[in-house]
Amino acid sequence: MSQPDLPGRPGDPQLLERVRARLLGQAGPATPSRVAAAVRAEGEILGDAEVLALSRELGAELTGAGPLEPLLGRPEITDILVNGPHEVWIEAGRGLERVPEVSFPDDDAVRSLAQRLAAQAGRRLDAAAPWIDARLTSGARFHAVLAPLSPGGTCLSLRLPRRRVFTLAELVAAHGLPPEGAEILRGIVAARLPFLICGGTGSGKTTLLSALLSVVAPSERLILVEDAPELRPDHPHVVQLQTRPANIEDRGGVEIHHLVRQALRMRPDRLVVGEVRGPEVTSLLNALNTGHEGGACTLHANTAADVPARLEALGCAAGLSRAAVHSQLAATRVVVAHLTRSDTGTRRLAEICCLARDPTGVVQSVPAATFNPTGALTPGPAWPELCRRLQGHWTPVEVPR
Fold it and tell me: Which residues neighbour 106 within 8 Å (Cβ) at sequence distance 6 or greater?
């Protein structure tokens, strides 16, 4: 029979509050010795096991992620979402799942955690700056919005860095890639064709890109440009460049388009942009048109057919004309791989496309290979072009037409 929480025992709110107040008034982490000293100062007598449990609880609250700390240790979790004090959700490859056993005492506890994480990133989060998008020292991407902008309470989200890189074979075994699709993508890498991986949020773009970069020849030098270190290819020669947010005085910020320009001067064999979503699209298009073969990036897009329009919007916002965007895009000869995600969280390769200009000069995504949910391949209008470009690097199978 379990023993109820009593005053002077771990879990007692009054004791926790008193010890917390003492520790916050001192410098240093909530170590077991400091917790024990604070407990003794309160006139309480606890055993070693109780002091250790109390120090863990206070340490997680004062310097860690509080109630979220156990979730951070689960390697299968990629996202943690908090919608106010009583709703915590996770993504572990099966779609979003609520975790009812994890909650916060009140919205002040959620707000305190959000502000502590913001401070770790060197940013402020308060009434004057009620939202934040930052990268933590752990590599996690952190976003938060404070109440009352969020009427249901403070909302925060954590995108956790991948613990390991999946191989193409593992993605095939997990039914995320059809075997023939994996061989086509391997041929694209071997032929040093530029490629773009598109899809919605959580569709597995970064996972697939890391797997493909892992099969690049070991003699090649990879320069990766990202907001956060999400790409972790298993490759011997990787140089990572990461953006830096502006400080509270709005100075010192370094954005992706700055780093793309620097990467071009670092003798890359392959220039890789983790995600294209701003003015860096102009530098990337220029790079892919000036002898930098085999470049790669990811892009948010609902379908492969939307890719030219998305790049057009980004390029025009960066100062290029519509004609210039489509002219440069057509010259890159980028191959597009589109990923989808089902309602159950299953991710899969849906389509591989080539880019081609229509009679008006506008670039279109032309399907070369379409894969149904079982992985069966159906060739599209650009199938002959894809086979020609991969000649010597991939042997096409006989497929029904």
Answer: 85
What 3-state class would DSSP assign to 58?
helix
Contact 304, 311 (CB under 8 A): no
- 176-231 pLDDT, tens digit per residue, is 899 999 999 999 999 999 999 999 988 889 999 999 999 999 999 999 999 878 89
Helix (H) / strand (E) element for 388: namely helix 383-389
Which CATH code of 3.40.50.2300, 3.40.50.300, 3.40.640.10, 3.20.140.10 fits the domain covering 168-389? Answer: 3.40.50.300
Provide the residue type at 364 as one letter. Answer: Q
Order of strands, sheet of 131-135, starting from the edge strand that comes earlier in the sequence: 96-98, 88-91, 79-83, 155-159, 141-145, 131-135
Cβ neighbours around 265 below 10 Å, total: 8
Per-residue pLDDT tens over the stretch 213-226:
999 999 999 999 99
User: Which part of the chain has CATH 3.40.50.300?
Assistant: 168-389
223, 216 Cβ separation under 8 angstroms: no
CA distance 213 to 375: 23
